[in-house]
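User: quick one, fold this
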Amino acid sequence: MRLSAIGDVCHAAAMVNRIQRHWPDAEITWVIGKVEYQLVKLIPNVRFIIFDKSQGKVAVETLQQAVKGEVFDALLMMQVALRANLASRVIKARKRIGFDWGRSKELHWLFANKRIEAHKHAHVLDGFMDFADALGVPQVEAPSWHIPVSQEDENWGNTKAAELGDYVVIAPAASKAERNWLPERYASIANHIHAKGKKVVLCGGPGELDKKTSQAIITQSAEIFADFTGQTSLHQLLMLLKHAQLVIAPDTGPAHMATTVGTPVIGLYAHSNPRRTGPYNNIEQTVSVYDSCIREQKGKPWEALPWGARAKGKHLMEKISFQAVAQKVDETLN
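Assistant:
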């Protein structure tokens, strides 16, 4: 059971892939959010149950009806939110595996009868892999992803890649405005990339914040070749990210989607620890001011604080300089 969000669903998909690789006959049911389902819906041999949290009690009743009469060998409770914990009560399972004490929140521990092993300073993806460990699934050297798309969407991606040539994607909008970098600095980076002979395209979801963020960058006289914000499905976006030479993004879903298709990512972080939530294969390529921000606010280094502690403030992303990001761009593209 992992309902949201896009980045976390990408991490969960790696765990599902691990189970399928070693236990190909396992029957897997995934309770998932409505939007997130659109990304992973074509993963083979997985039965999906959509949980639309906007429906409130009706969503729980729909879930209850979908699993009526079933008793699962194990329920992986991979979401600590109280809403998910309460909904999980309608699922009957012999083992109800939840997070360890250190990662349990919102009374999560009350709904589980078994817990994964404690894992100090674990990336979210590694934390999800701990659930596979609890099941006894053989370990892997590195996570892998298999998130299929339709032939139509694959063709769409190939066509766009041919039209664009060498290009870099900027996915500028996080879920909250305070986690976004400054539009003028995004524009400066776009111009820096353009000067290196690469096209720059913007992408994002259909939400108002995504559209406003992209438009604010364009109005800064940025060298933007195309703006795909709000114009793609999740599978089309995945293909757009797949063919890019590089993705630049704050703590947002497209950064993790790019990781699943092997595209390098430069993550921009201030509020959350990139060691925990950064693009899994490119932690060293992140540009982060988190360490200094959290020390300034808490008076302690991140190592001495609860794992997952967030820095707060509307202007923290301003501490990320153009020069720091440009250096990472040069290193990656060269």
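User: anything notable?
Assistant: The two ends are 41 Å apart (CA to CA).
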